[in-house]
Records
---
Amino acid sequence: MTTAKTETLPQTSPTTGKSEQWMEKAKAHLLQNYKQQPLVLERGLGSRVWDADGREYLDLLGGIATCALGHCHPEVVVAVRAQLEKLWHVSNVFYSEPQIDLAARLTAASGLQRAFFCNSGAEANEALIKLARKVQKDRGHADRYEIITFQNSFHGRTLATVTATGQTKYQKGFEPLPAGFTHVPYGDLDAVRKAVNPHTAAILVEPIQGEGGVRVAPVGFLKGLRALCDEQGLLLLVDEIQTGMGRTGKMFAYQHDDIRPDGISLAKSLGNGLPIGAMLCTEEAGKSLVAGTHGSTFGGNLITATAANVVVRKVTEPQMLKDVAQKGEYFLSRLRELQARMPTVVKEVRGRGLLIGVELFQDSAAFIAKCREFGLLCNAAGEKTIRFAPAYVVSHDEIDQGVRILERALKA
Ligand code: PLP
């Protein structure tokens, strides 16, 4: 698979018409709730995917920060295949080994003591929200139920998590929204302090606002939130759904700031594409969610937990996080060179590790379409920012290729 070949291949190969047929069928039957790119993807390997017509693409989006080890990572395939032939699902009324193993690995990696498993990011955040309310009730503060979150944040699509989300475009039409969420400007410690009131239970924060345009928290912000929470008796909840599992060059992004949250949410990269989410919390907080208070039918079943165990094992190998950090620096530096060549087109390049945003001076949609036409997959985070969240196995050559295609698209 050479670079030269893949840069000309996707656009020039004749279509068999299979993709068109599938998209017609999709239009007839799927709920039209996504703005989908016109691409029917059929198979993948590492950072490459192929569409239904056999065209090859360089995937620097990785299922939006989800396929951390790359598509069809051989060790995940082997482990999941073996588990598929043993046992899939037993319900959480029984114990299962992969789930217990996963809890042990995640608690060791995070410094938190308790793990709860679910199926998605929104559910993991729901668990955090319920945890915060229940902890405050158990502490004797029945009136402390409010969660402070941030403008431009994204926490999910359930009613509670879409209300936690600090973007009205996701909430419009679904009113009345649940009570108990306040949004303040991201990075503004004074605003957070002013928003704390006798009803405040917790602060929920993304270390990097992913959907909000890949915006990294200012230095000292998380530490400041930790101190404020300690002073006011609040829980600090960190949404690591997009940033966790090594994406930023540390296992969890809060570890860059040397803090310990009371609870964190995980999903996306945790299962390398299989649907698993997790809520991790301290021993003290975890005591509030006693038997019967929370649960999930599929949460952490044997198949998804098996995939997640491989992810955690691979990401905790000493070289992996170094590689993510180094490749992230390399990608950022190549993009900053591109910015220097095109200062009237590229406004800012930002990110950490392999979660990167390229903000343009104009809407990014047409450029993302051009990238796809030239064989590169990425997406928008906010209106003007192009997001890259490739697999950790992405090579330097693939990063170079991606930057070359992006430049071509920006010039087209
Ligand atoms: N929180 C963050 C930071 C996210 O990026 C996302 C998804 O993009 C979610 C929560 C919601 O996750 P899910 O779509 O798995 O419910």
---
Amino acid sequence: MTDRAAELRAYHEAEVVGCTRCPLHAGRTQVVVGNGDPTAELMLVGEAPGYHEDRLGVPFVGQAGKLLDRLLAGIGLTRADVFVANVLKCRPPGNRDPAPGEIEACESHLFRQISIIRPRLVCTLGNFATKLLSGRPQGISRMHGREIRARIGDLDVVLYPLFHPAAALYTPSMLSLLEEDFARIPTLLAGAAAPAREDPRPAPPSPAAAVASEPALSSGRARPAEAEQLGLF
Ligand code: SF4
């Protein structure tokens, strides 16, 4: 076991699997900490466990998980090559949206996972992960497909917001955009070690950066936005 794998396991066992910081602990079957390679260069962050994830203790095992597997396979990756986690580690009842207090209670678990795994590229899947890790208020329809340099704790990463696979399951136009955005991941991974370019615009307060008491450092790079042309912004 690598040092990072041991550190991640120790953190999960000590702080996460028995966590009772928010009311969601009362209704869970188990905590879904995440899974994959604890030394992965690519980390994917979704929203929260659903029914199947809560039962099995593994993220993305339902239909959305199958789509995620297919998207990863399309760029030559498997789950074993990446680490997959969620903003919330326990299932909200009825699969409702995460509440702000639940995100606040749980966010340090995600930040700690990121600081241990030290990915170079973090793909946020959907609105909740994107807003939390970017520190920006814009929704995923505006943010998807545009990489952002960000600092999370002591780590400089490239954030790459994507639609949540669940949202693309039954919407062909969104699935096309998701596939197109996924196709850029290998290029982004190859370039993720390049020095960050500072954004001349003042960055909004970032909860991620606040944890480390450091200012958010983000630089967005606009690319031709097909979604904009489709009127999705
Ligand atoms: Fe703890 Fe997060 Fe589960 Fe709430 S959702 S009980 S903060 S692990």
